[in-house]
From TrEMBL:
Record site: Interaction with substrate tRNA: T102, R124
Name of the gene encoding the protein in the UniProt record: miaA
UniProt: ATP binding residues: G11, P12, T13, A14, A15, G16, K17, T18
Top EC class for this record: transferase
The protein's name: tRNA dimethylallyltransferase
């Protein structure tokens, strides 16, 4: 049985994914699906490097601007909505091109998701208060004691995932590792993603180049009005710094600046640092990714290189 084609275009932030995706969409019958946990939010445009209005009109992106910043958005929701979009695109004889850097979402599509317990507001609030009071290192040490596999996978400075892993353990009595193993047994009895997937990743071969790009892009965002964008969100009154939308890289640092916890210089420095840490985590995911074809952001012929690879895996005929 042959499956319809789909393309994954992955990579760290500021690597040039969008430019390559648009180039592919110009020469192939592709439709773009965003794989980005921040692009789902309306009114968060500058700090997410969201494609501008003209680009979105010329190349519509599925799963962009689909949530208000006050709403949460989970990997399970992404998987459900991405699969629906892929089915719709395929039914019209086109190719889904999934582009972004939220690697958990790509993994959810490929491997499915463990059946995790829902959020518990009381437990989460307690863990977040501990993180503020005692520091993230204490939470990471606690996770290391109960679930060393998750502790090895989750960066010590990643508050959202640390809190979630401990919340899962407290609510269910089982670790994330145990729940994932349990779900893997279920998934092994079910068919995988029903597509022939070509997996591309793009990044500069030299890490220092990416670091420079990240700093330049953050400065450009500030010039474009990033602080004013976050200020509009801040003035709404229904958002706070622990919401997933405001935890997005850059937004948290500008939010802290607006609330007087960081100077403008500190905000810029920490925003750049947080973005580099995000890129490092994205690289960590991709280093262990199977069947991925790498492209160097600095090469001038990435489009023909990508097309050549797609032909070899029967995406192009």
């Amino acid at each position: 049985m042959s499956f319809p084609p789909a393309i994954f275009l992955m990579g760290p932030t500021a690597a040039g994914k969008t430019d390559l995706a648009l180039a592919l969409a110009r020469v192939m019958p592709c439709e773009l699906i965003s794989v980005d946990s921040a692009l789902v939010y309306r009114g968060m445009d500058i700090g997410t490097a969201k494609p501008d209005r003209a680009t979105l009109e010329a190349f519509p992106h599925h799963l962009v601007d689909i949530r208000d910043p006050a709403e949460a958005y989970s990997a399970a929701e992404f998987r459900r909505e991405a699969l629906a979009a892929m089915a719709d695109i395929t039914a019209r004889g086109r190719i889904p091109l999934l582009v972004g850097g939220t690697m958990l979402y790509f993994k959810a599509l490929l491997d499915g998701l463990a059946d995790m317990p829902g959020a518990d507001a009381e437990v989460r609030a307690e863990l977040e208060a501990r993180a503020e009071r005692e520091g993230l290192a204490v939470l990471h040490a606690e996770l290391q004691a109960v679930d060393p596999q998750s502790a090895a996978r989750i960066h010590p400075n990643d508050p959202q995932r640390l809190v979630r892993a401990l919340e899962v353990f407290r609510v269910s009595g089982m670790t994330m590792t145990q729940l994932r193993a349990q779900q893997s047994e279920v998934n092994s009895q079910q068919p995988g993603l029903p597509y022939t997937v070509a997996q591309l990743a793009i990044a500069p071969a030299q890490r220092q180049v990416l670091h420079e790009r990240i700093a330049q892009r953050f400065d450009l965002m500030l010039e474009q009005g990033f602080v004013a964008e976050v200020e509009r969100l801040h003035q709404r009154g229904d958002l706070h710094s622990e919401m997933p939308s405001i935890r997005a890289v850059g937004y948290r640092q500008v939010w802290d600046h607006l609330e007087g916890r960081l100077s403008a210089a500190q905000m810029r420095e920490r925003g750049v640092t947080a973005t580099r840490q995000l890129a490092k985590r994205q690289f960590t995911w991709l280093r262990s990714w199977e069947n991925v074809h790498w492209l160097d952001s600095l090469d001038c012929d990435n489009l023909p290189r990508a097309l050549k690879y797609l032909a070899t895996v029967s995406i192009l005929t």
